[in-house]
Amino acid sequence: MTASIIIQILLLGIALSMDAFAVSVASGLTISDINKKKSIFIAFVFGFMQALMPLIGYFLVEGIVLIVGESSGNSAGKIMGDIVSWIAFALLIFIGTKMIIDGIKDLKKEEELKEEKLFTVKEILYFGLATSIDALGTGVALHAGLSTNTTIWLHVSIIMVITFSLSLIGLFLGHQVERLFKGKHEITVIIGGAILIALAIWIILSHYLGI
Hints:
The protein has 211 residues and is mostly helical. The protein has one domain (19-209). The chain has 7 helices and no strands. It has helices spanning 3-30, 36-68, 70-108, 121-132, 136-146, 152-180, 185-209. The radius of gyration is 18 Å and the shape is elongated. It starts with a helix and ends with a helix.
């Protein structure tokens, strides 16, 4: 494994973690009871999922190649990349739209009737899946030359550490902005929802336009 490959993996890890970073900012903005322990949990989930998906994608392609050959494996990998990008798009649009609707409803409520958005493991797992599922397609790219059955474990570990670190930074930044809107939590929920919708659109554009 050369220094060039390590640099490529580092850059890939940063690129993949941008989704998790954006959602971390949104989470820091919207989760009112976030603390150090919950931040570490969120960052771990995002990092773990961002490493798991390329690993799954890599070995799915490896299995297809062993069964039906290299060309069929590459074709199946491309189809898989298309499907998972649209799944990620749908999940983020759904969650983001719901957050905006809830935020707008809270704007119209009396102050005493407003409900703050609280941390839930279920939602964090949804976010982890939504931000990482498109990385299944990255496993295809790793299989095409960057990784081997041995080095893939190191490569996804690097991706996990990068995503974990940037997710913590995103959570911190989001929470700092949320503090500026203290007493206007519904506004930060709307902003968080808008970030998720923008991210969903970006995933599709980047997948098909290569941007």
